Amino acid sequence: MQEKGYDLTIHHSKSFSDLPDAQFDFVITMGCGDRCSHIPAQFREDWDLPDPKTLPPEEFNRVRDEIEHRVLDLLTRLN
To answer: Which residues in 52-73 are b (16+ Cβ under 10 Å) and which e?
Structure first.
């Protein structure tokens, strides 16, 4: 992510149990479809993407770039 200018050193994954008991505006899941834990949300999408954590750097970067593209597309659709 440093290649894209993001410092993620202070970020970490969270468990579903770490989330507050609330309805979110948006929930984006990545490739789990109906298997994802249900999180209440006004808007939800499942992006069928592989988990990049074990991928070699080139494939990891492809997934990273696809996530960036989809986030930007989502922001455009919401405006």
So the answer is: beeeeeeebeebbeeeeeeeee
The 8-class DSSP code of residue 5 comes to: T
pTM of the model: 0.81
**CA nearest 40: which of 53, 31, 27, 56?**
27
Residue 20 backbone dihedrals phi, psi, to 5 degrees: -65, 155
CA-CA distance, 21 to 44, in Å (whole number)? 17
Residue 75 in 3-state DSSP? helix
Q: What is the 3-class SS of 29-74, one letter each residue?
A: ECCCHHHCCCCCEEEEEECCCCCHHHCCHHHHHHHHHHHHHHHHHH
Query: pLDDT tens digits, residue range 15-34?
Result: 888 889 999 999 998 888 77
